[in-house]
Amino acid sequence: MIMKGQKRKHPPEEVEVSDPSSPTWESQRQFVFSVSLNKYQRGQELPEPSLRRSVLIANTLRQVSREACRAPSVDMEVPPPLCSSSSELQESTLTGVAPAKPHSAAMFSNSHSALVSCPVVSLNNLSNCATSRSPATCHLSALNGPLSVKDEDEDWGSMSTDSDFSISAAISSILTALDSTIDGSPQAAPRTPLRSLENLSGPSDGGVAWGKQAVRGNGGSWEPQEEWRVPESSVEVMRSSYLSELTVEDLFQDIDTSLLERDMGVLGLRGSGGGYQAGDDLLRYLQPFSSSFPPSNPFSLSLNQNLKCLPSFSSFCPLSSSSSSSPAFSSPNLVREGLELEHLMEILVES
Amino acid sequence: MGEDTDATPTLNHRGFLPDHNYVTEADIISTVEFNHTGELLATGDKGGRVVIFQREPESKSEPFSQGEYNVYSTFQSHEPEFDYLKSLEIEEKINKIRWLPQQNAAQFLLSTNDKTIKLWKVSERDKRPEGYNLKDEEGRIKDISTVTSLQVPVLMPMDLMVEVSPRRVFANPHTYHVNSISVNSDYMTYMSADDLRINLWHLDITDRSFNIVDIKPVNMEDLTEVITAAEFHPHHCNLFVYSSSKGTLRLCDMREAALCDKHSKLFEEPEDPSARSFFSEIISSVSDVKFSHSGRYLLTRDYLTAKVWDLNMESKPLETYQVHDYLRSKLCSLYENDCIFDKFECAWNGSDSVIMTGAYNNFFRMFDRNTKRDVTLEASRESSKPRAVLKPRRVCAAGGKRRKDDISVDSLDFTKKILHTAWHPNENIIAIAATNNLYIFQDKLNSEMH
């Protein structure tokens, strides 16, 4: 079945399993998910990605995520996160396209944070009563409004018990804010990535944004439309402020700067038209955090391996200035970037 | 035609290009199309070339040897281009060729790559004027002093020369890749379809086209469906159909509105919940749609089946034919190696009684709608000699009872795929494109349609 000359890798289940309660279903679902991610990303690397192929793969990814939602009892550790991220994935996969807006970086970090937050959600699902988070709710909550206050308290409780996941939340918040600057929207343009982080100390717009995003990272109730359209209107970012008292300092307490020295390669940011170099570097070196997740979680492992450019159709727009002709997957000058990173992290911690 | 017992299709084998031991990318055939009389057969390849074959007229000395197809003309239709705005190379691969009905001595065909559609005129020249006054035979200007009398140039026969010239270039109307073109029955207009839009053209006007279908969502984030194929109705110039990646067909009437986003009829088969898998949507994506010659039926091809639809019944297809159902349990592997995205074409015979489509391992399948019989044949040099009768092939499922000469599913060669096939409009002659080779098969015994 494998093309001639191709080495046979991890053999997929040969028999199509349509029954979610079957033990092979979950492994097949994960296999399909990881293969789809790889495929999509590789397809985007091509100078001319086929729109039909990309749409089909993206739809498959979405379906696989939805299937996960429908069978949370199968594997509590892994599937639930997908449902809350499924809509995320949809948004990030198909981000697009106001022409001439280089959304590629935005797109990537959206999906990165979406997926990064998944383990957090799963933790919440486990710690909260699983019954209160039925699959339907799980799926719907991804699309509906903010959490109830009660949920938030519970979420915070579970979040604070696990420093790894708070880091992931922090990372996702950073990424979100950075991507809003990177994509070059008029509102974000004057702000450098560093300045956006400095804004987090007070209850300013930036602070609210951070708080909101951090909560969302943990609460798992994403509002994809609002969040990822920050470039369109910064007013949306300020909208929900139910956790404005939270500061970034809380989030960053657990960051271990020693992790940053590790070279984990790049996150696979596509070249953005805006050229926010510092932001790109920061994003690249934040990947070590995601790698620190417990390896026992197979989902996050595959996440790490596949955290590259996630589906976006922005490259199909004729006027999009950032076509995916040369994804920046290599880190050219590690030494220089290491020094920059240290500098950046100092500022982060101080703020 | 094509059944194991009573038909004896003979092989009239023409290699597309001289034998190579390897497959040159540029030689891969990307489209095959007979003209309206079947006298001419055009093929387009990945290198942007078009080769036209012409059927030799039946010779009187051998009444049973029907005409064979020989190369008539070769020309470079499209060249690789570079889009400077997007820094992208535009492939010169010919995606589709469509012939115009013949209206005068010349033949016209439309050929398209991803972005540009061209109208080519193919004409013959078999006479040339001789006896000019001012020029000699080689074309050099004569010395005036040597001209003593006037003569009238006379047309003298010459060796047949086929001239091909581009008459129209319909450039860059499409943002996305053009996948279909279809000439209207009014012989004045044609349409071109890309992934998200369909445009209507007048054959004489190159700088303007009308957009008649646009399924591009306001936010590309909401994109979940693309157009995969489109065709005009063979008789009603206001009707056309387009297929989508979600397995739906939409029949549109241009009289209803200028923009035909709203369909007149939607053909969709409800999904079978017991057969659901992760790949249900991908395998339901329609790769080709063809109206029957009568205009009453539609033939569609998705990954595993070919379906015949009645235009009057939208709820489900009239007939469903399993092309290679043994692949259903292998979908995961086929997804991994990308074969699941292959776009197979399909074809009707002239009387709409038999449908044909390609498969893997250089197999192609024919289904007789009346007798419900089907046959699998192979197009390859090794398995058939010129003028030999094609032997029906069989694929047995892995582990199944295997007869001699059967092929097991696991030994199928998925690099040998027959994506493009064409059927002569009147006779039982088929053209099969197998990678870089073109095979033409004729059914000598049953040459007339029945």
Q: Which structural category fits the helices and strands of chain B?
A: mainly beta
Compute the separation of the termini of chain B in Å.
9 Å
Topology, number of strands of chain A: 0
What characteristic shape of chain B results from the CA principal axes?
A: globular
Please report the distance between the alpha carbons of the first and last residues of chain A: 56 Å
Q: Name the quaternary structure.
A: heterodimer
In terms of DSSP E residues, the strand content of chain B is 35-45%
Instruction: Assign the structural class of chain A, choosing from mainly alpha, mainly beta, alpha/beta, alpha+beta, or little secondary structure.
Output: mainly alpha
Helix content of chain B: under 10%
- Over the alpha carbons, how many angstroms does the gyration radius of chain B reach? 24 Å
Mean pLDDT of chain B: 86
Pattern of helices and strands of chain A: HHHHHHHHHHHHHHHHH
- The tally of helices of chain A reads 17
Largest sheet of chain B: 4 strands, antiparallel
Q: Helix fraction of chain A?
A: 55-70%
DSSP E strands of chain B, number: 32
Count of DSSP H/I helices of chain B: 2
Give the largest interface pair and sizes: A-B, 46 and 48 residues
Outline of chain A: globular
Pfam family, one (chain A): SERTA
InterPro entries (chain A): E2F-SERTA_domain_protein, SERTA_dom
Protein name (chain A): SERTA domain-containing protein
Family (chain B): Belongs to the phosphatase 2A regulatory subunit B family.
Main attributes of the structure:
heterodimer, A: 351 residues, mainly alpha, 17 helices, globular, B: 450 residues, mainly beta, 4-stranded antiparallel β-sheet, 2 helices, 32 strands, 40% strand, disordered N terminus, repeat (chain B), protein phosphatase regulator activity (chain B), WD40_rpt (chain B), WD40/YVTN_repeat-like_dom_sf (chain B), PP2A_PR55_CS (chain B)
